[in-house]
C-alpha cells in the first residue's frame, strides 16, 4: 500500500468512525441522556414524585424524540455508506467526543437547514450579501473555510457565485454531503434539535419542539448558477503557504498537500470566514492562509464571535520548521500549548492593516446573534454571541 | 474529640484549604494562564512574531494584573486567618477545582462590589425592591440562600429588612466576611476581574481593565437599620424539612442540623432566591425547603436563569430515607444521578401553585441580564442569561 492509499485508508477509517457514531446515536442518547434521568426520577421519594406527576410523560416524550433523531442520523449514515466500504475489523469504536459531536450536529442542522433559524442566519448573511452585491457573481470565486453543513455555499451559489467550501470535521462533511446530494424534499425530515439542552426552558414542550428540515428544496441546488464544491481537511493544510509555516497538527508536509497549497495561491476573489476565525490553535496561520489564497484586490469578510476554541485547552502539540528541500526539521518545539494567541478584534484588524497589506472597508462590533437558539414565544434560551463583522481588502501593491 | 469538635475540625480544614487556594492564586495563575501563553508566543516563527510586536507588552501587562489580583486574595486570606488557626500538617493541598473557584471569585466580586456592575445588579434588585416596598421592613425577616459574597444582604439590610444569608461555598463565605467586616473604604482595592477570559474582546485593554472595589463604604454596614447574618452550609441541610427528605450529599442527619432545621420552620416572611434555584442536584428539595421556612402568607421571590449546574454532571451520589427514631436506613439508592429534574419555569410554577399552596403574584420571563459582563464601549463580552422572575405567596389555608 503506497503513501497515498495509506492516507486514503486512514481517511476511510475516520469516516467509518463517524458513520458508526451516527448509527450509535440512539443507544448513546438513551443511555447517557434519557436513562440517567429515569434513574433520578426513580430515586426520589414517593412524596416528591407526587409533586411532578407529569414527569414520566415528559420522559417518555424525551425518549421518542431521541428515537426520531436516531432516524435522521440513520439516513445520513446510510447515504454516507454508499460512498465508503466499511471494513468492520478496522473500525475504531466511536469515542465520547465523537458521540458528543454527533449530538451537537443537531444544533448545526437546525441552524443551517430550518425555517425557524432564518433570522439567525440572516444576521450574518444580510451583511455578507450587502457587500457581495458590489461584485459580479460569475466572476467571483469565493472560499468558505469552516463551511459546516454547507448552507452558506448553497445560498451563495444560488446567487451565481462560484463557491468552494472547506471543512475539517467529518461529522460536518457527511451531513453536508447528505443535504447537498441526497435529493431531500422540503420538510422531508423531522429532528428534535433542542433535547440535549435541559437548561433555560420556559416549558418542557419548548425543549421537545420538532423542527422540519430542510427548509429549501435540496434539488434546487442542482440548478445553482454558480459552481459549488467542498474540500475536506484543515484550512491551513489545504490552502496555506508552502514556506514559513510551522508544521503542526493542522499543517503537514506531504507532497499532496504541498501541491494543493501551491494551486491555492492567489486563486480566490473572496474569503468568507463565518463562525470560523476563532477555531484554530494559531490564528496567525489562518491570517497567513487568507493572504495566500486571495488574489490582489481580493476581499476577506468575517462574521462571528471571538470564542477561541482552545482558550481553556491545556493540551500541547509539536511544532517545527522544515527545510522544503532537505526535509530537515528545525526549531522543534515539542510542547507548544494549544491555548494562547487569543487576539482581540482590534489586534486582528491592526495586524491585517499594518502588517498584511489589508485596507479596512467596513467594520461593526457587538452584533448579537443567536446560535441554534430556540425562537418560540418568551424563549429563555441562551441569547447567543456578540459578533464581529469586518470587510478587508488585500492591496499588496498599495492599490485600492 | 467529640462529634461536634470533629465537625468543627473538618470545617476548619475546609476553610484552611480555601485560604491556601487564595494564597496560591499568583503561583497558579502565572503557571496555568500566563506561562502557557508565553510559551506559545515563544513557539511561533520569527516572521509571525513580527506580525504581533505588541504581544510581549500585552503578556507583561497580563502578568502584572495577575500579581495585582494576588494582592487582593492575600488580603482576604490574611483577614480570614485571623479567625482560624491553620495547622499546616493537616492542610490538604488545594485542588484544581479550588483554584478554579478562586479565579472565578473575581467575577463574583466584580458583580457584587463594583460600580461598573450596578446596571447588572439593578436588573434583579429593581424587581425585588419594587415588590419589597409593599411590606414593612422592620417586620420582615428575609432569607437569602446562595447569598454569595453578601451584597444583596447589605443592600436590603440598609433598607431596614432583617436579612439572613445562607451560603455553601467557603470561597464565597470568606470573601463575604472580608467585605462585610474588614472595614474597607470605598475604592480601596483594585482587581482585574476579566483577565481569566481570553475570548470575545474588542481590545486587549478591555480584558486588562482595572476595577476599583468596593463601590460602597464597607463601614456603612454597621449603621444598617436591619439585622444581618450569614449561615454556612447547604440550604436544604440548614433549613429543610426534618421528615420526608432523602439523605444526600446536601442533607445530613446530624443532631445539630436537625435542631437548625426545627428552628427554621415557619420563621421567614420572605425567601429570595437570586441566581440560586438552579444550583442543586434536586430542585424539589429546594422547593420543600422554601415552603418549610416560610410563615403562612410568606413570599418567595426568584430571579435568575435556569442554568442547571448538574445538567452535564455524570457523577452520582447515595440517597436514602431514614427513620428519625430508629435511625434505620430505607430505600437506599447508592447511585442517584446528579443530573436530572431540570424543571422548566412553567413546571416550577405549576408545582408551586398546584401542589405546594402557592399563589402566583407576579411573573416575567426572558429578562436578559449580564453576569460579570464587561460594560465598556462596544463590549463584545458574552451577553449573559435570559432570566426568570417570579413572586409567589404561600397560602397553606387558602388565605390571601
UniProtKB/TrEMBL annotation, chains A, B:
E.C. code: 2.1.1.22
SUPFAM superfamilies documented for this protein: S-adenosyl-L-methionine-dependent methyltransferases
A single GO molecular function term of this UniProt record: carnosine N-methyltransferase activity
UniProtKB keywords: Methyltransferase, S-adenosyl-L-methionine, Transferase
Alphabetical list of Pfam families matching this protein: CARME (PF07942)
Single Gene Ontology BP annotation: methylation
Family under the similarity heading: Belongs to the carnosine N-methyltransferase family.
Name listed for the protein in its UniProt record: carnosine N-methyltransferase
Organism the protein comes from: Saccharomyces kudriavzevii (strain ATCC MYA-4449 / AS 2.2408 / CBS 8840 / NBRC 1802 / NCYC 2889) (Yeast)
Amino acid at each position: 500500500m503506497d503513501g497515498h492509499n495509506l492516507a486514503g485508508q486512514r481517511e476511510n477509517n475516520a469516516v467509518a468512525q463517524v458513520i458508526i457514531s451516527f448509527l450509535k446515536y440512539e443507544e448513546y442518547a438513551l443511555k447517557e441522556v434519557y436513562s440517567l434521568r429515569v434513574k433520578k426520577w426513580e430515586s426520589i421519594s414517593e412524596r416528591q414524585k407526587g409533586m411532578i406527576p407529569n414527569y414520566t410523560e415528559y420522559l417518555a416524550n424525551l425518549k421518542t424524540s431521541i428515537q426520531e433523531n436516531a432516524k435522521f442520523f440513520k439516513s445520513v449514515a446510510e447515504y454516507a455508506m454508499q460512498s465508503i466500504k466499511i471494513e468492520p475489523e478496522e473500525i475504531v469504536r466511536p469515542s465520547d467526543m465523537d458521540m458528543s459531536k454527533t449530538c451537537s450536529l443537531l444544533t448545526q442542522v437546525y441552524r443551517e437547514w430550518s425555517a425557524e433559524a432564518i433570522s439567525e442566519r440572516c444576521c450574518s448573511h444580510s451583511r455578507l450579501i450587502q457587500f457581495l452585491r458590489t461584485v459580479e457573481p460569475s466572476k467571483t470565486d469565493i472560499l468558505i473555510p469552516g463551511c459546516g453543513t454547507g448552507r452558506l455555499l448553497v445560498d451563495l451559489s444560488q446567487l451565481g457565485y462560484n463557491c468552494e467550501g472547506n471543512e475539517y470535521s467529518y461529522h460536518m462533511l457527511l451531513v453536508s454531503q447528505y443535504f447537498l446530494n441526497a435529493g431531500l424534499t422540503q420538510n422531508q425530515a423531522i429532528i428534535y434539535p433542542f433535547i440535549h439542552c435541559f437548561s433555560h426552558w420556559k416549558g418542557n414542550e419548548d425543549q421537545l419542539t420538532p423542527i422540519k428540515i430542510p427548509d429549501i428544496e435540496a434539488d434546487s441546488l442542482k440548478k445553482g448558477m454558480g459552481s459549488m464544491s467542498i474540500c475536506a481537511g484543515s484550512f491551513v493544510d489545504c490552502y496555506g503557504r508552502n514556506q514559513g509555516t510551522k508544521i503542526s497538527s493542522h499543517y503537514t508536509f506531504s507532497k499532496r498537500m504541498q501541491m494543493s497549497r501551491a494551486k491555492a495561491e492567489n486563486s480566490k476573489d473572496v474569503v468568507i470566514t463565518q463562525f470560523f476565525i476563532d477555531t484554530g490553535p494559531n490564528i496567525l496561520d489562518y491570517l497567513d492562509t487568507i493572504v495566500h489564497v486571495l488574489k490582489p484586490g481580493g476581499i476577506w469578510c468575517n462574521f462571528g464571535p471571538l470564542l477561541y476554541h482552545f482558550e481553556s485547552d491545556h493540551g500541547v502539540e509539536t511544532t517545527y520548521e522544515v527545510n522544503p528541500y532537505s526535509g530537515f526539521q528545525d526549531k522543534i518545539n515539542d510542547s507548544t500549548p494549544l491555548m494562547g494567541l487569543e487576539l482581540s478584534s482590534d489586534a486582528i484588524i491592526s495586524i491585517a492593516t499594518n502588517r498584511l497589506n489589508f485596507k479596512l472597508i467596513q467594520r461593526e462590533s457587538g452584533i448579537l446573534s443567536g446560535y441554534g437558539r430556540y425562537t418560540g414565544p418568551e424563549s429563555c434560551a441562551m441569547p447567543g454571541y456578540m459578533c464581529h463583522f469586518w470587510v478587508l481588502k488585500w492591496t499588496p501593491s498599495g492599490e485600492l
